[in-house]
Amino acid sequence: MDFKKWEPIYEAILEDFGFSREDDENSAILLSNLLIGSGTADTNTLEELISGKDVLVCGNAPKLLIDLKEVNVEDYVIIAADGATAPLVDKGIVPHVIVTDLDGDVEKEIQANQKGSIMVIHAHGDNTEKLLRYVPQFRNVIGTTQAAPFANIHNFGGFTDGDRCVFLASEFNAESITLVGFDFYDKDVTPMKEKKLKWAQRLLGAF
Ligand SMILES: Nc1ncnc2c1ncn2[C@@H]1O[C@H](COP(=O)(O)OP(=O)(O)OP(=O)(O)O)[C@@H](O)[C@H]1O
Ligand SMILES: Nc1nc2c(c(=O)[nH]1)N=C(CO)CN2
Ligand SMILES: [Mg+2]
């Protein structure tokens, strides 16, 4: 994603939520340093995995398991959005890629990572403690930010874990992108989650 294209959307998100760009930037610097310690994965791995392939993006809506019955998971490169990892792992499915800001079931994500999942870990102003605690426990990590990319920190576009999966699949030239476990009208969510889902829906309108 060209950051100049993403930046106006990012500025609108910052304003809507009252997030601080400086906090996001400092969190990204922290993640960059943590990855220098533990080893950053190469984005070529994502290119090789995704380019020309059919991708299944798994969101964490309650209907995820119902949606999964309609697809043959073996036909896809599977990208799990954060909390979607646990129900997949419980069904014996190891996602090829996990996109996370580490506020889901991180223990399940560590298990999946040990079985081969590539981690795409997102730094933002409200997850620095999670980064410090968990990043050293993962291998094969690619770091992302919603602010400007630099050095070993990327910005493929997107905001919530779920829509960032789709931006990532698009960035690496997926042949097709199929969504399961997305429900933007889920009423059983907090007001904050409802607001984030509205942004996810809006951002996915571009695809
Ligand atoms: N009804 C839904 N409830 C929860 N997540 C949903 C829903 N529909 C789609 N999603 C997508 O699934 C992703 C993963 O969901 P999860 O429950 O892990 O949320 P989360 O980690 O709190 O999300 P985020 O960190 O992006 O706020 C979300 O980022 C969202 O894009
Ligand atoms: N600063 C900040 N940025 C975010 C946050 C958040 O809570 N705070 N949540 C996200 C995933 O929904 C993505 N980006
Ligand atoms: Mg999350």
Note down, in words, how this protein is organized:
- The chain has 9 helices and 7 strands; from the N terminus they run H-H-H-E-H-E-H-E-H-E-H-E-E-H-E-H.
- The protein has a 7-stranded parallel β-sheet with strand order 6-5-4-3-2-1-7.
- The chain has 207 residues and is α/β, with parallel strands linked by helices.
- It has one domain.
- The longest helix is centred in the N-terminal third of the chain and has 18 residues.
- Helix content is 45%, strand content 15%.
- Bound molecules: adenosine-5'-triphosphate, 2-amino-6-hydroxymethyl-7,8-dihydro-3H-pteridin-4-one (PH2) and magnesium ion.
Compact description:
The protein is an alpha/beta fold. It is 45% helix and 15% strand. It is built from 9 helices and 7 strands.
Topology:
Blueprint: H1 3-17, H2 21-38, H3 43-50, E1 54-58, H4 64-68, E2 77-81, H5 85-90, E3 97-100, H6 106-114, E4 118-123, H7 128-134, E5 141-145, E6 153-154, H8 161-171, E7 176-180, H9 191-204
Parallel strand pairs: 1-2, 1-7, 2-3, 3-4, 4-5, 5-6
Bound molecules: adenosine-5'-triphosphate, 2-amino-6-hydroxymethyl-7,8-dihydro-3H-pteridin-4-one and magnesium ion (MG).
Adenosine-5'-triphosphate (ATP) binds at residues 59-61, 81-84, 101, 103-104, 160-163, 182-183, 186, 189, 196-197, 200.
Name a few traits of the molecule.
single chain; 207 residues; alpha/beta; seven-stranded parallel β-sheet; globular; binds adenosine-5'-triphosphate; binds magnesium ion; 6-hydroxymethyl-7,8-dihydropterin pyrophosphokinase
